[in-house]
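Bumping my old thread because nobody answered last time. Still need a sequence for this structure:
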């Protein structure tokens, strides 16, 4: 049967104390026990339904985790204090000294910096590859490789990973395929295509209101139990826990994710088609000109579209800055990093979210100075938005 992630979120039923339609928020860092034995059993992970201490887990975090696991179709999930707070423990849980990772070279700058500069201190080394070339990926695998890492749609170049192909490689070489699905929630469901672990920055589309950071790891019960193990679990011991109040507010926002993603995608598709027709160098997975358009189409849950992210290249950083400042002045959106907000957000990744990547490597991967990354908002009147954007583009001379 077709995987229907929004139905699965909709069908969850939680009640609060006193019959509240939202689950009660567990506003406690610690929990009492009537018997010392149950406390011991809970600490050892052998007393289901009991809570000990909110860094381990809390009812509010479990509710949110369950909704995210339903969305990705995994056995369970563990929420974290940020996207990086989800990604880094996963990699440290799966790899130890001497191990090797094969990663896409176009990934979020923070993840890139972690793999390039931080994990080598622990003797975990990474080979960065063009993830769209399965033969190149396979050639980079060594006897020490433990993990294949990619983003379903990459930040900021919007390269699309062939998740089924990568999952087959992972299986063949006994590796874990870890996929960051931050850019394409609902549209793509990596675990359904064979990914072992799916991570998200909840900060973006899933929460959708740019009021918090958050992250999640979706995977098997065994893997999530390992991450939460009190003796050697990376989530447990590195301590990137989400606060219960936040978990509760993200859960409420998540219930409208399906409506928001449809609107983000519809607006982004409209603008991408217009920009391309105007002769701008436009990258959007929904355009037939995108090198992985067919691949995205073959993987997607159609009703959510090709997502809210697009890029244009206006030739130089100076022009990019001029255009972004003007668009902000015209109230078309904000010159800001991050994504998934109701307003359009735009930034030049080379000098912001991907600035951790050295310039020569940026050049190699096609990350140019004039690239503007747009997270297209929920505008009700996208035709009007386009007309004003076009005027801005004419004014700064990119059209
Ligand atoms: N993954 C992707 C694709 C991102 O774009 C980001 C942040 O921009 C992250 C992970 C990190 O998430 P957070 O900022 O919530 O730690």
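Sorry it took so long. Here it is:
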């Amino acid at each position: 049967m077709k995987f229907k992630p929004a139905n699965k979120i909709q069908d969850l039923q939680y009640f609060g104390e006193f019959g509240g339609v939202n689950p009660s928020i567990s506003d406690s860092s610690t929990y009492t026990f009537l018997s010392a034995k149950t406390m011991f059993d809970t600490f050892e992970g052998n007393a289901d339904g009991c809570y000990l201490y909110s860094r381990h887990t809390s009812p509010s975090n479990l509710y949110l985790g369950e909704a995210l696991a339903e969305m990705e179709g995994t056995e369970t999930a563990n929420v974290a204090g940020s996207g990086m707070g989800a990604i880094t423990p996963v990699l440290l849980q799966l790899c130890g000294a001497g191990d090797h990772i094969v990663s896409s070279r176009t990934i979020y700058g923070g993840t890139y910096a972690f793999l390039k500069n931080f994990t080598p201190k622990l003797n975990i080394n990474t080979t960065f590859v063009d993830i769209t070339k399965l033969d190149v990926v396979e050639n980079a695998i060594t006897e020490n490789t433990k993990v294949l890492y990619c983003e379903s749609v990459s930040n900021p170049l919007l390269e699309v990973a062939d998740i089924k192909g990568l999952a087959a490689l992972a299986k063949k070489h006994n590796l874990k395929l870890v996929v960051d699905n931050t850019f394409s929630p609902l549209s793509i469901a990596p675990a359904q295509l064979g990914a072992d672990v799916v991570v998200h920055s909840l900060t973006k589309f899933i929460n959708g209101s740019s009021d918090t950071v958050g992250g999640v790891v979706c995977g098997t019960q065994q893997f999530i139990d390992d991450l939460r193990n009190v003796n050697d679990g990376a989530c447990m011991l590195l301590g990137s826990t989400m606060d219960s109040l936040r978990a509760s507010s993200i859960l409420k926002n998540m219930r409208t994710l399906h409506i928001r993603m449809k609107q983000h995608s519809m607006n982004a598709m409209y603008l991408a088609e217009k920009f391309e027709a105007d002769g701008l160098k436009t990258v959007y997975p929904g355009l037939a000109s995108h090198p992985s358009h067919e691949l995205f189409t073959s993987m997607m849950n159609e009703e959510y579209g090709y997502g809210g992210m697009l890029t244009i290249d206006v030739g130089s950083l100076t022009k990019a800055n001029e255009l972004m400042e003007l668009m902000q002045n015209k109230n078309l959106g904000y010159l800001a990093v991050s994504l998934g907000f109701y307003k359009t957000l735009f930034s030049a990744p080379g000098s912001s979210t991907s600035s951790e990547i050295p310039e020569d490597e940026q050049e190699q991967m096609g990350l140019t100075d004039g690239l503007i990354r747009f997270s297209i908002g929920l505008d009700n009147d996208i035709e009007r938005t386009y007309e004003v954007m076009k005027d801005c583009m004419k004014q700064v001379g990119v059209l």
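The mean pLDDT is 96. Let me know if any region looks off to you.
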